[in-house]
Amino acid sequence: MTSFDFGYTDGDVDTNRSGGESLSDMIDRRYSRRDALRGGASAAAMAVFGGAVLSACGEDKMGGSDPRPTISVGQSSQTTSGSRVTLTATATDNGSIAATSFSQVSGPAVTLSSTTGLTTSFIAPGVATTTPIVIRFSATDDKGGTTTADTTINIEPAALTFSAVAKNKNDVVTVPAGYTVSVLYRCGDPISASTPAYKNDGTDTGFSTRAGDNHDALHWFGLAASGNTRDETNSTRGLLVMNHEYIFQTYLHPNGPTSVNGARPESEALKEIEAHGVSVVEVSQAANGAWSYNQSGALNRRITPNTPTAFSGPVRGSSLLFTAYSPTGVAGRGTINNCANGYTPWGTSLTCEENWAGYFRRPTSADNARRSAKEVTALARYGVTSSSGNYGWATVVASDSTNTTFRRWDAQATGASATADFRNEPNQYGWVLEMDPYDPSTTPRKRTALGRMNHEGCWPGAFVAGRKPAWYMGDDARNEYLYKFVSATAWSASDAGATDRLAMGDKYLDSGTLYVAKFAADGTGTWLPLVFGQNGLTASNATYAFADQADVLTHCRLAADIVGATKMDRPEWTAVNPVTGEMYLTLTNNSQRTSANTDAANPRSYQDAPNFSYANHNGHILRLRESGDTTEATAFRWDIYAFGAGSDLNAQNINLSNLDASNDFSSPDGLWFGRATNASGQGNPLLWIQTDDGAFTDQTNNQMLAAIPGTVGDGAMRTVTNFNAAGASTTTTTIVGKTPGASLKRFLVGPVQCEVTGVDSTPDGRTLFVNIQHPGEDGSISNITSNWPASQQTGSAPGNRPRSATVVIQRTDGGIVGL
Q: Where are the stretches annotated Disordered (predicted)?
């Protein structure tokens, strides 16, 4: 025992010399100099400058020992946006620790996994510059003494921390080390309790309650933890809404498609029709992190080409939509060839009808004579010229003579008027369809103000209160255009929570201005309005005599031709940077781009062996920034973010982005930025790029890349020399963005002969959903070329027919996918 020598003081009559604690000792302990250390600036300084342990041991003012907690919360550290930060503290005491806690002191708000105990973690938020976050650990002993210590974590801007996946031709989905991939939702999977499991031998029926074929664009719509209430913040339970673009006939039937005397069997055709369209399916994450879909989900739904739809906007009721099914032009049936997508902030999904024209039978040798010259011009411009239709559905002789399910695919003018046949049925397709995933009782609506084309996506720009919102749309065909629709109604943030969601679509999507883009060689551009009575869009136009605005919107390709829009290299998906508002556009490729018709926005024509034609084989990604950073702008600046090319191609005129083996790609298609609700869509947002390629498949299966792009204007002007087959050269000047370098990496390679398409994440960014389309597309029943997804676990699964499917990708450390 330590002895103490106390001198006499006035009033000290006697002294209790036992070891018990006096009142004055208690007061001294409670307010000693060390309490300032525990709760004040000194504690913070020790943590920041390397003090791993903050100790309450030492002498008190009376020379005694201090029993209060000794704690550690680690040294200051550094990490990047999107990474998981784990803090482990220690706390010891001569007595016992009564309570411990973590709290945030400063920096961008984060969610701590635990505020009690000795361990906590959080996801580093998205930042544009290095930003400190200070976390405080506190421990209280059984006598009420509290010690605190702070640690600082410096958050660096987002970086691609994963190792690039090597190019490969394996029959699995390959992801980087530190990631897992699992299969969630496959073609044919049942989405009702009464639908049997999928046998995958060609005998399955009932696709109106099964996952459709060829999964494409998808979007996550959050659900509350229980019930069917919308909760856009929930990351563990929600609805996946996805497109089913087309079908793989070979594997849908026991021995491929058949016909009898040139007529398709009714049962086969019905299966094929129902395998198109859209899925709405409930998915959820278990406590162990695994994902599954709910076969009996109350909101599960299929929208097929047979589902009733309604028309809205300027074309509703137009004679251009009159058919035997809808004599007044206000109703329709279904949606088809749904490729890319979009969304609205009021909680609806936008699906886009792409290559619809080829589904219709219209032999021109017979039908042109029945049509007016104006009709022939319009039908030819949209490609409604097939003599049989893609799958021969018009040849079906229905068992019920009143059933027009199959007859409507015959677009010939055979009746006395448009209400007696289906000559106008092609005009019912090529639109953007809005649907409410939270209410299966609602009828999807085709929003005609957004125009009719090979719609490839309909992605919104920024929603700013008091400003008219806009949606950006590509028209996926060679030498087609980029469009923008600007609503006539300024955005009101309160409408995001509306419960009558399709009424919000009426408000914002049924009235506005459709524009088409014209690109200038100096890096500027103009949005040209497609409005009846303006810029030659009149009844007296010699090329096509427009009758009214409904005619302009139904035939907006012709309108864009007339106003002088810039022909692009297959404009496909659009995506908008959630921080800068810049719009990105994939230009997949163009077999018709020659050295004679290159321009600044489409500047390359070249050979890419083994294809010796001259064309833009590998595509590129263009971006634009609206003047004044407003969706209402009618002018913009542009450049080219990245050029697709093999790393072995000429860097002077072809591989203009200086791609290497870690990031070379070809034919960009799918495009998506991380959500603004997590680090992948904050600071410097993450861009996902997916490919649909044939020119690069001699080196690798199709792929998905992650990028952290810069901004419009971060590069320089570049002169490209192009050649033709005769060896003659021409030059084109373009604007090339900053070389991507390590800010572009290959993240995923798909299975054999697939397309990688469709991507979204949960709001927290910790789960990524990706669609794999048409694996084994070059195979047949006798020569199955892919066994995916059955092959995903073992790498080989002989005998299994391939199926399109949705996969789930997660980081093993629980961080943001891609960062």
A: 1-23, 60-84, 783-804
Partnered with residue 482 across adjacent β-strands are 474
Angle at Cα 341 formed by Cα 509 and Cα 476, nearest 5°?
Answer: 100
Pairing of strands 703-707, 687-691: antiparallel
What is the tens place of the pLDDT at every residue in 227-274? 999 999 999 999 999 999 999 999 999 999 999 999 999 999 999 999
Closest CA relative to residue 662, chosen from 176, 170, 166, 174: 166
**Which residues, in sequence order, are bridge partners of residue 524?**
637
Cα radius of gyration rounded to whole Å, the chain: 32
Quote the tokens at residue 467.
Answer: 């400003």
- Region for 524 from its dihedrals, namely left if φ exceeds 0, alpha if ψ lies in -120 to 50, beta otherwise: beta
Residue 48 sits at φ, ψ, to 5 deg, of: -65, -40
In one-letter notation, the amino acid at residue 338 is: N
pLDDT recorded at residue 68: 72
φ, ψ (nearest 5 deg) of residue 106? -160, 170
Bridge partners, residue 602, by sequence: 599
Q: In whole angstroms, what is the distance from residue 668 CA to residue 620 CA?
A: 7
Band of residue 33 on the pLDDT scale cut at 50, 70, 90: very low
DSSP at 201: S
Tokens of 803: 């199926």
CA distance from start to end of the chain = 58
Assign 48 to helix, strand or coil: helix
Distance CA 654, CA 667 (A): 14
Nearest to 240 by CA among 208, 298, 281: 281
SS3 210: strand
Taking the C-alpha atoms of residue 315 and residue 312, their distance in angstroms, rounded to an integer, is: 7
Q: What percent of the residues of the chain are helix, what percent strand, and what percent coil, each to the nearest 5?
A: 15, 35, 55
The per-residue pLDDT for 27 is 42
Angle (CA) 36-40-45 rounded to 5° is: 120
Say what the pLDDT of residue 76 is. 83
- Distance, CA of 218 to CA of 767 (rounded, Å): 14
Hey, what are 490's tokens? 């300024």
pLDDT band at 74 (very low <50, low <70, confident <90, very high): confident
Which uninterrupted H or E stretch holds 380? helix 373-382
Q: How far apart are CA 293 and CA 284, in angstroms?
A: 6
How far apart are alpha carbons 241 and 227 in whole angstroms? 18
Q: Which residue has the tokens 């006539």?
A: 488
Q: What is the mean pLDDT of the chain?
A: 92
- Domains for the chain: give ranges and CATH numbers: 31-156 (2.60.40.10), 179-356+429-811 (2.120.10.30)
Instruction: Indicate the burial class of 262 (C-beta count within 10 angstroms; 0-12, 13-18, 19 or more).
Output: exposed
Spell out the SS3 assignment of 276-311: CEEEEEEEEECCCCCEEECCCCCCCEEECCCCEEEE
Which ranges constitute the DSSP H helices of 18-142?
23-30, 33-39, 41-48
* Letter string b/e over residues 414-440, b meaning 16 or more CB atoms within 10 A of that residue's CB: eeeebbebbbbbbbbbbbbbbbbbbbe
User: Strand 331-333 relative to strand 308-312: parallel, antiparallel, unpaired?
Assistant: antiparallel
CA contacts within 13 A on the Cβ side of 85: 28
Instruction: Please tell me the distance from the alpha carbon of residue 656 to that of residue 644, in angstroms, as a whole number.
Output: 9
CA 678 to chain centroid: 14
Residue 452: closest CA among 510, 514, 542, 408:
514
Query: CA 612, 615, 616, 617 torsion: positive or negative?
Result: negative
Nearest to 277 by CA among 250, 252, 241: 241
Burial grade of 722 (CB within 10 A; 0-12, 13-18, 19 or more): buried
